[in-house]
Amino acid sequence: MSYAGLAGTDGQFGGASAKFLRRRALQAALARYLLFFAAAASVLVTVGIVYVLVTESANFFKHVPLKDFLTDTQWTPMFEDAHFGVMTLVSATLTVAGIALAVAVPCGLALAIYLSEYAAPRVRETVKPFLEMLEGVPTVVYGFFALLFVTPLLQTFVPGLSGFNMLAPGLVMGIMILPYTASVSEDAMRAVPMGLREAGYALGYSRFRVAAKVVIPAAFSGITAAFILGMSGAVGETMVVAIAAGKNPNFGFDPTEVAATITAYIVQMAMGDLPHGSMAYQSVFAAGIVLFLITLIFNVLGFYLRRRFREVY
Question: Which domain holds residue 168?
């Protein structure tokens, strides 16, 4: 039944004219379609990215066997005797991301516990905005900070440390993802009902024991999702490793060595004059699809853990 049919003889319905009701229905439909197209745009962009990666990588794998791509320990696409062992880039990527996570997990969890359980409201309202401001620092600034400050500082403690290494950018990336992991973890802890805390205090638990035995298990899904998504961001980080880790691909997990991550290699090749359709050009997309799959795995794992251990109160 139309709005006009529901209106009275004077064109009024519940104090609103039929014209007003038709206009409101039109606005609601327009908003619904605009929001749908906005959501569909993200899906279409993702599909387009996957299409480009898959089509270009397919041309690459016509010349390079998948077995060699996954098992070779050399990555020399620009050499006459070219090798395309992507594990060389993957090992460096996982090493740097692992160092970043080793920094972000304990520091982020400790900071989240402090903000959630110990800090006064005024302190929390002051510290958290400053912490989140670190997310706005350009990554190129973090890169030069790692190269010009952290690396010389580490060289005083690690004799023989190269000017380019995986340790410095890993530590700086841990600082870089710390605001995200700490903020999301603190939000998850703050969502735990106060009644659970009071029950722990009634049993004689200290504040730290309540945080460790009650709050963290109750917020476990949000905390783990925060750190896994932070790991995903560290894997995909570009400028820090491109500036401070070097561009010489080496297979291994020694953080004091020079290495090239997947993102650093993509940046290096993108800055060069590569002939379109060459093997070196196509190797960029092959490395890109490996990076895409790694980040996808971390995102799916974070989603699964969030669904698996989520507590609803």
Answer: 75-308
- 89 and 212 share one domain: yes
User: 54 and 171: one domain?
Assistant: no
Q: Per-residue pLDDT tens for 167-217?
A: 999 999 999 888 888 888 888 888 888 888 888 888 888 888 888 888 888
Global confidence as pTM: 0.81
Write down how long the chain is: 313
